[in-house]
Amino acid sequence: MPVSTRSRIFNREEENGGSTTTIITEQTENSKMAHTLRNPHHGLKEKLKSLTLLYEQQKSASIGTKNINFKPQDQKLPPVPALDRNGSMKIEDIDSRKHKFLPIPPQNRPDSAKKEETETITAQIPPVTTERSPVMKENSIPNATVTKTYVLPQPLNPTSDDAKENKVAANGDRIVGFTCPRKAPVSSTVARKLSLGSQMETRRDRKLSLGQEMDPLFQKQSSSSSRNSRILVFVRLRPMMKKEREAGCRSCIRVVNRSDVYLTEFASDSNDYLRLNRLRGRHFSFDAAFHETASQLDVYSTTTADLVEAVLQGRNGSVFCYGATGAGKTYTMLGTVESPGVMVLAIKDLFSKIRQRSYDGNHVVQLSYLEVYNETVRDLLSPGRPLVLREDKQGIVAAGLSQYKAYSTDEVMALLLQGNKNRTTEPTRANETSSRSHAILQVTIEYRTRDAAMNIINRVGKLSLIDLAGSERALATDQRTLRSVEGANINRSLLALSSCINALVEGKKHIPYRNSKLTQLLKDSLGGACNTVMIANISPNNHTFGETQNTLHWADRAKEIRNKAYETNEELVQVSESDADQAKLLLEVQKQNRDLRVQLARQQQKLLSLQAQSLAANANASPTPPFVRSILTPPSTNKQRPRTPLRTTPEPAKKKGSEETIRELQLVVRTLEGEMERVKKDHALQLKKKDDKIRELTAKLSKGVRPRDEGLKNIVTRSSLRSKEPNTGEVKTSSHRFLSPAPAAKKRSFWDITTANSPSLTTVNGRKTRSHVNAEPTTGLPSMLLQPGFARQRLSPYRQ
Ligand SMILES: Nc1ncnc2c1ncn2[C@@H]1O[C@H](COP(=O)(O)OP(=O)(O)OP(=O)(O)O)[C@@H](O)[C@H]1O
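# adenosine-5'-triphosphate complex -> structure
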């Protein structure tokens, strides 16, 4: 029997001494399973049906089973099998003839008043690992022993709200109804990949909030489904608010595992005569389900990271959040400063990826941000008159929408911030900062590169990040006129969205996109050649059960929408021979430029070490050579040459500019080399002079001529010479350059070095500030630590 990702029932009831016992229909020979679970949400009919089916299969399986060592003592109550670290339970050597009747452990036993109880084991993909019977997977009857692994629902944290809710459900109202979900396709339990490399897969899986390891089947499905263009649907549960907790709200939703959520309806105690205090529940399965503790990064990396990668390869991608008001859509899309949401993380990721690839082409990022408010489209980046939607070759576009070029994450953030200020938000009873409009941020990435034949390849990918306004009930929000009109419009457009989803799912020819502005704008995302991700946001509050159920229902429907097979928006511009030559030349020039920059850096390094040596030797003798000083002095900010605005430079001008830059660079390199040579010569000359002087003095001494200073020792040493040398321009021996220029001075510290050239710092409140280092006799040496930076700064205008 195939093991479903859905819950399976493995129980029977038997009155055994007045107490309810659970029958585990599959039992092992070596390890006997006895674990009762409380998940009583299957209908009796379905339970019996699946039980009968299971029994039949096991029976026929057992006929062919050999090597069964069935011992009578096995009929005793087997021990509760140990769960593995994933909460999985192994059932080995299944033999259908040996069903066990196990007592429910006291901690799991429901209220004794209950007559009915169901036990559910959630099986995980791949739940079956066939050891001796690989055909088991194909739903055929095994003729040998098999091993099955069942992943049980995670044990609840007793302190969490979930745990409390669970307790209520177990001990409180009886659960008698269960809407059996439609069997989800196997692939729905896994996150579909967007035809990307294994690197992305690894990352995504690492990020999965439940931290379970990815099994091989998962990988296989992921890669095989990468060609599939089904909409990916994720669900995110927001945490219970303090206010809600204080108001005594209960959690009606539970994230069962990494893809499933379970919705429970709590009956109102006294008045619900029809349901007789019964509860209803429903199980939903999505590509991934995020627990309330899931981080923004978890959500981003699982839902959108692949999309960003695909957009860079020239495909279109859309992410939209759907859900009731106050369910956390804006939090997911925008987030806060401390925990930025999908929009911000996507932009950051985009730019970091562009930076990594910048070596092989040019990327141009353009941005637009609009809102649909009360069925009018408005530009959020340059507010003005409402925009009109038009259909052209690219699809539906808002005529006159401003497009901004952005070159860094910061620029995008600034634009985003500006747009959000212009967005319509109002406090409602349900949410203090309720978004009253649907906001769409569109990022277009144009990528231009050349192939081997120098043809221009132009790829354009578009990423749409959509924060929908919340669906709401009239009572949930204010009754003021404007708010209710807004609410009605929001609901109308969401209804139109639902109709489109329905029509798409049913495969209708006519999709009513024109029913609202929102659906017109989402046309591309829903049925077009686009990778689409939908994040359904839900609240745990049981008072919003209806809205949560609605959201989950539509999200479940949306899973079945298939987009058109996506294609890369790529354009190949063939160039003529002369153009190709020019392009080659440009590439060569660029390469040369790079080489020159490397050379320059090397020369600079050499120059600096040389300068350090020469400064040490000439500390007191000669002033810093002017060219060195000019390098070491930071250029004043107002004199600094502005960076070449490459972003706006057209192609031929850019080429011209790069040639000029190369010429300039070559000139700089030549100048530096010349200066270096001169310094070397100077240095050698000075050393020679010093040696001559020493020789001369030694000769004089040997002739009996005393040195000028009588107080000094008669022996002439280099140090004795040094004391007389300052400011005289006298030379020293070559070995002098390695000696400290001022031996008597206190040892120079880090601050001495870094602040030696800094403008004087004053004493603050009598406290010595860093300026005290200037009190020392300075050698006039510039900061060594700052040199590379200054040198770079000075040379930066030449950089491309
Ligand atoms: N995952 C989360 N973690 C922490 N706080 C959250 C989370 N999701 C939502 N919230 C908080 O819940 C509140 C409502 O969220 P948000 O404004 O995002 O809802 P919304 O669905 O956008 O509502 P509306 O449709 O009315 O705009 C906010 O205060 C937000 O900070």
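# post-check
Residues 154-573 form a domain with the Kinesin fold (CATH 3.40.850.10).
The chain has a mean pLDDT of 62.
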